[in-house]
Design brief:
- The chain has 142 residues and is mostly beta strands.
- The protein has a single domain, classed as Jelly Rolls (Sandwich), CATH 2.60.120.
- The protein is 0% helix and 51% strand.
- It contains no helices and ten strands.
- It starts with a strand and ends in an 18-residue tail after the last strand.
Length: 142
């Protein structure tokens, strides 16, 4: 059985140029695990100049998340092609046990791209049983 989850928009779809960074924050309070997808609707090959995951106790101060003892500040390197039409450029799978409450995503494309990001949070302290507590307008059980 899949545990009940909560959905959250981290970065609403936004047209981002190479001089801009799309940024979003997700509150993970009460959840043990989160999947964060960074996506693009851009219909051309593109790369991300930067893709970073940071954490913080507040929404105003963040530090880089360390992966295998080093700061995670880029996925596949700045020259790697990470995005094509309507694709998930990266998925962060984060075990929140022992981490700070807030996660921040930052993404900068090499050329103009429409970027967005969403999160699925799992294993809550209290089971989110209503649509609002699951981050949805409507809850449909099938």
């Amino acid at each position: 059985m899949i545990p009940l989850s909560k959905s959250a928009i981290v970065i609403a779809a936004v047209s981002t140029t190479s001089a801009q960074t799309a940024t979003g924050i997700v509150d993970t309070k009460g959840f043990d695990f989160v999947n964060i997808n960074v996506c693009s609707f851009t219909a051309s090959t593109n790369a991300l100049v930067t893709l970073s995951l940071k954490e913080g106790d507040t929404t105003s101060s963040f530090a880089n998340v360390k992966v295998s003892g080093t700061d995670f500040t880029n996925a596949e390197g700045a020259t790697a092609t990470l995005m094509t039409s309507a694709v998930i450029a990266a998925t962060f799978r984060v075990d929140m046990r022992g981490r700070k409450r807030y996660l921040q995503i930052n993404a900068t494309p090499t050329t103009t791209a429409i970027l967005w990001s969403n999160a699925q949070l799992y294993v809550a302290d209290a089971t989110p049983v209503a649509a609002a507590t699951q981050g949805a307008a409507n809850l449909i059980d099938v």
